[in-house]
Amino acid sequence: MVLKEKSQQQGIIVAHYGVAVDVLYSASQKIEMVRVKRNSGHVVGDSVEVKDNVLTRKTRSSELSRMDARGGVHVVGANLDTLLIVAACEPLPPPGFIDRAIIASRAANLSPVLVLNKSDLACFKDYSATIISTYRDSVPIFTTSAESGAGIDNLLSYFGENHRGVFVGPTGVGKSSIMNSILPDINLSTGEISESKKRGRHTTTVSTLHILENGGELVDSPGFNDFGLVDTTTPELALYFPGFEKAQKEPCRFRDCKHKEEPGCQVTEKVQSGEISSERYQTYLQLLEEVEMIDSEPKYRERRSRRKKN
Ligand code: GDP
Ligand code: ZN
What we know:
binds zinc ion; alpha/beta; two-stranded antiparallel ribbon; about 30% helix; 9 helices; binds guanosine-5'-diphosphate; 11-stranded mixed sheet
C-alpha cells in the first residue's frame, strides 16, 4: 500500500535524459525516473518536488548561464557553488575563455577555480607559468595530469563535502579524463565525440550529478568554447574582472566607475604605474565593449534585470 504522504517528495535531479530525469529523493535516498517535457529547462542539480509523477522545480540558489556564438543561452548549472575551469596547453582555450568563466562565475555567486591539466606535456611549463602569473592573485590554481594522476588528490581534498561543482572548458582539455580518474566507476567516454553519442541523444544521458566519497558533488557537462557573458552587468564586470583585485582595496572615486576615463580611477592609475599589465586592461576593455553591446539588446537587458530582482 502506498501511503498518501509519500506521494509528495522532495529531491534533486541527478541525471537528465532529455525527456526524463532521475530524481534522488532526500528522505528515502532512492532514485526514480520522472518524465519531463523535452525543453523543460530543468538541469542536473535542480531541487524539485514530485507529486503524482508531476515534477515542480524549486527556486534555484544559483544559476550560471552562458551565451553561445549565435546568441543562444544555456544553463551551465544550477545550485552550484564551485566552477572548475579546466585549461591545457593543448588544445589552448579560446581567447578570453578563462576571464569570462571567472567573471560569470563570480557574478553568479560561485567560486571559480582554475585546473591546469596535462602537466605531463612538454608545452605545460611555459603555459602554466603565464597562466599562474596572470591569475594567482585572483583564483585558486591546481595543476593536474589525468594521464599520470598527479595533482588529482590535491584537487579532491580542496573540493570536499558540501561543495557542488562542474568542470567547464573546451573539448579535449581532459574534463572527462579527470572525472574518470576521480570516479573510476563512471567511465565517461574520452577523446573525440563518437558518432553514437551524436545520434543517440534521446537514449544517452545529457548530464549526470556524481556524488564523491568525500561528500562533494560533481556534474559532468559537455565541452564548449563560447562563454558569452549573458547575465553579467557592466558594474559586475568592472568589479569581478580577474587582475583588478589589487585596485579594489581603495575604491575608485565614482562608485559606478567603468575604469575608462573617469578621474580618480584606481584601475587606470595602476595600469599607468605598471601594477596592472596593459594586456589585462586591454582584455577588460574588449569585454566591456561586449557586455555593453549585449546590454543594448532589450531581450538580454530584461533578462539581466529580472535575474537581479530574484
Ligand atoms: P574533454 O573533452 O575535456 O572531456 O577531454 P578528454 O578527457 O576526452 O581528453 C581529451 C584527450 O586528451 C584524450 O585523448 C585524453 O586521453 C587526453 N588527456 C586528458 N588528460 C590528459 C593529461 O593529463 N595528459 C595528457 N597527455 N593527455 C590527456
Ligand atoms: Zn575605476
